[in-house]
Design goal:
The structure is a homodimer. By secondary structure, chain A is an alpha+beta fold. Chain A contains 12 helices and 17 strands. In chain A, strands 1, 2, 3, 4, 5, 6, 15, 16 and 17 form a 9-stranded mixed β-sheet that branches. In chain A, strands 7, 9, 10, 12, 13 and 14 form a 6-stranded antiparallel β-sheet that branches. In chain A, α8 packs antiparallel against α9. The longest helix of chain A has 22 residues. The interface between A and B is large, with 57 and 57 residues.
């Protein structure tokens, strides 16, 4: 089987022209935007050219399906509002080139997917969550983006393309290539990451309510300042988590909303996001306990009313051992000592697909570890290395899942 | 001279019906709103009934002017978006009753003012700042409120009422009555506060810029999280200020804006408000030094870029000694041992007027120390006590400034 690296790179660059930001190699292709739909139609044409049967499902996931039992390869082609050119598009175009080369060579059968709204305009990995059954289409239709647009309204923009859901039973397994979005491969000068598992996530909003008051006439000792409670909580939490976490554990306060948010008013209320991730479900639960206890202690000490939103989460997922082994052996063959096994700290569509079939992931390095910006990039030599590893692994990947 | 307490209380209750919130005794009369303008027209009618010459100046300040040299008494009748019924309206209606009683008694001459936008929809004590010359009308016209409306557009809603500015030389002095907006009088069971001085204020925005990154793939030790920098700054500042401040000093972080403000993104930037107040200019400066040095130290320690906005401020202002003495003697006569001398932690129009003429202030108690909410209130016995003190002080107040 003969893959064509130049054709693969040309497709990546042609694709990034759709919704190009004009800044660096950046792309603006949020899920269901005109640019996202145009990119999906362009990908559909390439899939047809490759002899695949093209389908769009009700969530807007794009499928290029090979005959018979096939290995599914892909990722997503939607981007963050300020996105990079590779991110998930890399995995989709890798799947396209692999399927194309396999068709030309007469097998093994490779199908391609570009999942919709992986970046979570509406949910978390929305398109693959719907396909895998963890999110119902009816429930998804009620979700809204930050501008208040409903998922039902957004996906209607693709109604002229949409058909039925695709039967997962026709796929022997799923392999997703993606950029690492972290620093480890780039720092080590390595080209390939074979993912061992995808971390789990917990996410909720925490509210402290104190007393709104005049910032001139309220003495410090009489204040019940919600921002001061947040700061005390953050300081205590960083200290108390030390005995619980590992170097792979992360926790983030990324959103803070103070009420009323005026220079001259002691803030009476704060709502903030509390998100944490780890590869071990038990540790996620221990972190949750520390977070809830610390918030309660700070609320008691500072005279705040405390409340928590519903907690959302995804469990850690281990990658399929056989598929992992196939990728590792190919990596060692193509890039000896320039690859590693590693955990994924980011969520991916593979988390959902793993509920349906054996799933595995491979990472390409992110220069300086940055992603979700216009400046995200990967050396083309590493992109080609990843494609070659995938091609070398294909026979074993197809056999592992019992594909043709 | 015979004041009429029932007439005074009826006017206060009639006034609060204009823009009544329907919640407790709350009022919604933001500067230049229809309710604010209606309230000013209602007050203008009462001033005419009292035999005063009614004028509106270009800023929308309302004047009821007695013949000859007169003592100016008043405050403001605009409110916060969620305001109380007394706040500044108390001082305006007290001035109205005092002027009315003085007219009936044939002197001393009392004029009345309701300044515009004391609550700072556009600036800080905007109407009195323009009249006192600390803010030019041209500059004020360029200011916008939080909805983006310009001051020029807002004051145009009063154009049918507006005439020239009023000559300050005709006033012998200014006395402003206002609710305390703090807990001290209420806690001590006292009825009257005679203000010694109004604190100064410093206000600026501080920006920390770190690195925006993925909240799943960026290890804790590699993050440059702007929220963490803010939290570290707040903790260090509270500690370092202890050796500088007095129990009267206050400092507040009331507004925090995280960028991009997403659950799954390590915040790369925070802009927050830093405001502090004290009665001593030198201490305000020492606090500024601690604030700037602490921010610089935290920026160094956490790898942030640090920047400060222009710093705005008003200097502390001492109340006129003769006017203060007149109020204190009347307070001791009317409410022996139920009054105190005290500092004002809130800004007031008197801060601006003091640049033009002798100025003094008197406070009524705030039940539970609350203000700028619908639930702000004062016992009517205390309102009447304040009016009686002002009436008893009037001869000395008029003489102090050389009024007729």
């Amino acid at each position: 089987m003969q893959i064509d690296g130049a054709r693969f790179l040309k497709d990546l660059h042609d694709l990034r022209a759709i919704g190009a930001s004009g800044i660096a190699k950046g792309v603006v292709r949020p899920a269901y935007s005109a640019a996202d739909i145009a990119a999906r139609e362009w990908l559909a044409d390439r899939m047809r050219d490759a002899g695949l049967d093209v389908r769009f499902d009700p969530a807007g996931n794009l499928w290029g399906i090979a005959k018979g039992k096939s290995l599914l390869v892909g990722s997503h082609s939607d981007t963050q509002p300020e996105g990079g050119w590779l991110d998930g598009a890399l995995g989709v175009v890798m799947g396209l080139e692999l399927a194309r080369a396999a068709q030309e060579a007469g097998g093994p059968a490779v199908s391609v997917v570009s999942f919709q709204d992986e970046e979570g305009r509406f949910g978390v990995t929305t398109g693959s969550a719907i396909w895998s059954g963890s999110l119902s289409l009816d429930h998804a239709d009620t979700l809204t983006d930050s501008a208040g647009t409903s998922f039902a309204t957004a996906r209607a923009a693709m109604s002229h393309l949409i058909g039925d859901f695709v039967d997962p039973a026709q796929f022997s397994g799923f392999v997703e290539c993606h950029i690492e979005q972290g620093p480890w491969l780039d720092e080590a000068g390595q080209s390939i990451g074979v993912v061992t598992d995808i971390v789990g996530i917990r996410d909720m909003r925490v509210t402290f309510e104190g007393e709104q008051n005049h910032a001139g006439t309220t003495p410090m000792h009489r204040r019940r300042d919600a921002f001061q409670a947040l700061s005390a909580f953050n300081t205590a939490l960083n200290d108390r988590l030390r005995n619980v976490v590992t170097p792979q554990s992360v926790w983030t306060i990324g959103h803070v909303s103070l009420h009323p948010g005026a220079h001259s008013i002691v803030p009476g209320k704060v709502v903030f996001s509390m998100q944490w991730r780890d590869g071990d479900t038990a540790r996620l639960t221990r972190m949750e306990t520390v977070i809830r206890e610390t918030a309660a202690d700070v609320a008691d000490a500072t005279g705040m009313r405390l409340s928590f939103s519903e907690m959302l989460g995804l469990e850690p997922v281990a990658m399929d051992a056989q598929l992992r082994k196939a990728l590792a052996q190919a990596a060692q063959q193509i890039a000896p000592d320039r690859w590693r096994e590693m955990q994924s700290g980011a969520l991916h569509d593979a988390t959902n697909v793993a509920a349906l079939m054996p799933a595995a992931m491979m990472f390409a390095p992110s220069i300086n570890g940055i992603s979700h910006t216009f400046y995200e990039d990967t050396h083309e030599a590493d992109l080609l290395c990843g494609l070659n590893v995938l091609a070398a692994a294909l026979p074993a990947l197809a056999k592992a899942g019992g594909g043709s």
